[in-house]
């Protein structure tokens, strides 16, 4: 009898813990706002006061950052944004433009009446942050760039263009989980061959934002020489090369360490 009560007590405690955890994952705000004729969807989480924007990669959506919310929620107020063309935001209507995506993010930050933000961007999200730092240097207090060096041209990576095509959709399983419908998936993949962005040396030197650049040592989508170029030219940049990992160096086995080091970087100025 006593053993049965202990088991019941354990089950109740487990269920309560699961409910608390699930509740903590619920956004405290969700909104789709129209900015310059484009709809932008975002969610807000966290118990902290410092605004932290988490920006996803191309073909992903804000859902890709949901597993990271518990790790950042104590220190930050977390903003998950569906970047231009993705998730519940407006689809691409012309050729993909990273600068336009950055302009749209700027309008969102202004709509939210935030003086400045801290941000983490993966791949496409990182390139958007590079552009935002050029458009409005005062808007980003500090940023973590993962799997990006600011410049990328799809025509230099034909194997990625082939991989990220609708003919290969059966291997792009995450897209059905993160995009709203099949039409949106096609819309995104149609833009892959057009993806091009460049930040030259003079522009890199003008970015004064405290920046931690993170790259996997086996990242075949982000050339190390491009990463080093960014690190050497940006006056307030730091570099973390993650061993034995590829393009998504913030995920899976590296997730906890990534959260710890990125939080440390964003909350301290003595690096």
Automatic annotation (TrEMBL):
InterPro entries (UniProt xref): AB_hydrolase_1 (IPR000073), AB_hydrolase_fold (IPR029058), AB_hydrolase_sf (IPR050266)
Record-level Gene Ontology MF annotations: hydrolase activity
Keywords tagged on the record: Hydrolase, Signal
The protein, known as: Alpha/beta fold hydrolase
Pfam families xref list: Abhydrolase_1
Domain AB hydrolase-1: 50-153
Species the sequence originates in: Negadavirga shengliensis
Range of residues in the leader sequence: 1-24
